[in-house]
């Protein structure tokens, strides 16, 4: 009798784990088939229709392999300057269109890579990295004390810097 209850208990566990495994499989296939529509969490409001990378490492890999420039936006959710720039960025139709030509990453935390804070860890700051994985020190905002800072009033400068980043890719590669 004891052996019988062990066997039925074992079969029950197998049945449950099979059912759970099936559910997990279903979720993955649903997400992988509808790839372009990424969860709102990755865009963090910077452009929900754009494709954002999840990590710095993934962004570098994708930039190198697609030969597209990488645009990294450092910001903080509770920072009023970041919020204002995000709003300007998300509402600027030309920037949103141009951004499709970049590998995009927005970070709400600092990375350990010192190349991403060449002149300090402030927000918001936007850096461009070319497919050779070089931070473009020649593409900066208008502030000498925070080279990679942009404000909502600098949105047209950001747009022309995005164009510059794309032009540099073509001429240098």
What is the CATH topology assignment of the domain at 56-166?
A: Glutaredoxin
Distance between the termini: 75 Å
Second CATH tier, the architecture of the domain at 56-166: 3-Layer(aba) Sandwich
Rg calculated over all Cα atoms: 22 Å
Gross morphology is elongated
Let me know the number of strands.
3
**Mean pLDDT across residues:** 85
CATH class of the domain at 56-166 equals: Alpha Beta
- Total helix count? 6
Helix residue percentage = 40-55%
Q: Numbering strands along the chain, what is their spatial order in the largest sheet? A: 2-1-3
GO molecular function: dystroglycan binding
Family: Belongs to the AGR family.
Organism: Glareola pratincola
Signal peptide: 1-21
Structure, explained:
With 173 residues, the protein is mainly α. The chain has a domain at 56-166: Glutaredoxin (3-Layer(aba) Sandwich), CATH 3.40.30.10. The chain has six helices and three strands; from the N terminus they run αααβααββα. The chain has helices spanning 2-33, 40-43, 56-66, 80-91, 93-99, 155-172, and strands at residues 70-74, 103-107, 125-129. Strands 2-1-3 form a three-stranded mixed beta sheet. Helix 5 runs parallel beside helix 6. The longest helix is centred in the N-terminal third of the chain and has 32 residues, at 2-33. It is elongated. Mean pLDDT is 85; it is low at 24-35.
Short synopsis of the structure:
This protein is mainly alpha-helical and 173 residues long. The chain has helices spanning 2-33, 40-43, 56-66, 80-91, 93-99, 155-172, and strands spanning 70-74, 103-107, 125-129. The protein has a domain at 56-166: 3-Layer(aba) Sandwich (Glutaredoxin), CATH 3.40.30.
